[in-house]
Amino acid sequence: MKIITAGLTALLLSTAASFAADAWKEAEVNGTKIYTDANGMTLYTYDKDEKGKSNCYDKCATNWPPLKAEAGAKADDEWSVVDRTDGTKMWAYDGKPVYTFIKDKKAGDVTGDGVGEVWHIVKAD
């Protein structure tokens, strides 16, 4: 029974870690390393957010969909999970919540960079 329990625990831990690894990835666009969601869509931060807190809801969140975090997702290095006021969770990079942009149509698009002088690509260090 102990072997089964240990095996199940290891499986659950590796599954939780895979949620994080599957949520984002690194890509190179125009010679710059950036972070994207699992589908290759560029991730952005919003200057009006606070560290660990999203201020993008309603129409903002329609245009800038938050990068959702699955239930049970755990922080991973610079990546953390932020609770939203609507009860959902989202990913944050270096404490800043991250979003995709509705006008980016394909992987590699970066049309949201600089919008309103408050949206910025999440660059991979």
From TrEMBL:
Signal peptide (from-to): 1-20
Keyword Signal annotated: yes
Pfam family, one: Lipoprotein_15
Keywords annotated in UniProt: Signal
Keyword set includes Signal: yes
Matching PANTHER family: BLL4220 PROTEIN
Protein name (Swiss-Prot/TrEMBL): Lipoprotein
